[in-house]
Amino acid sequence: MSDIAVEAVHQNIHQRQSIGHLVEPAPSAAQLDQAFAAALTAPDHHRLKPTRFVVVQEAQREAFGELLSQALADTGQTEEVQLERVKHHPFRAPLLVLALTKLQDHPKVPHFEQILSSGAAIQNFLLSLQVHGFSTMWRSGAVVESALFKQALGLTEADLISGIIYIGTAVKAIPSRQEINISEFVSDWKK
After folding, report:
1. CATH code at 123?
2. What's the distance, Cα to Cα, between the start and end of the chain in Å?
3. Is 16 exposed, middle or buried (0-12, 13-18, 19+ CB in 10 A)?
4. CA torsion angle for 69, 72, 76, 81 (degrees, to 10)?
């Protein structure tokens, strides 16, 4: 790989940031498929493929907002303002993708490894979309713990809704990420 290609990969990684308000255009079906393919190359012990994705197209956002409101109520939220507010969350972006983790009992692959694999898959997905010029916001919150929400997605109680990914085009440029001093986070192991 050339130095230019290596620099482009690192630049894409360093520039990824969550953006809260996104507009059209959203990725094409081909771009989305390419991002899903990238996601599914994540490290995955015994190739269990614990990660699943559910696409919420633009026309389904209102119905999905209703489900979010019901799911939030299922978690014990009773404030009408909050229940009404969450109905509008799907309109923050033209496309939403739910990232799910279907946990499997396996003698050599504990659940935590499957969860880490799913997180790596989501990061690959986000980076692939970004290289196409799209922005994202990966969100979760109390709603992902709702048994009603999990049931509506065909999940078991043990499975995870790993996040709701909002996808579209940034309205405006955001400031570059502050440089990170890696020495604060990296050390040599010593006996």
Report:
1. 3.40.109.10
2. 36
3. middle
4. -50
- Assigned domain for 181 exists: no
Contact 32, 55 (CB under 8 A): yes
Q: Please report, for residues 29, 31, 43, 83, the alpha-carbon distance to residue 34 in angstroms, rounded to integers and kept in the order given.
A: 9, 5, 17, 35
Structural domains of the chain, count: 1
Instruction: Per-residue pLDDT tens, the chain, 191 aa: give them.
Output: 889 999 999 898 888 999 988 999 999 999 999 999 999 999 999 999 999 999 999 999 999 999 999 999 999 999 999 999 999 999 999 999 999 999 999 999 999 999 999 999 999 999 999 999 999 999 999 999 999 999 999 999 999 999 999 999 999 888 888 889 999 999 999 99
Helix crossing, 29-39 with 111-131: angle to 10°? Answer: 140
pTM value is: 0.94
Tell me if 177 is assigned to some domain. no
4 within a domain of the structure (yes/no) = no
Domain assignment of residue 101, yes or no: yes
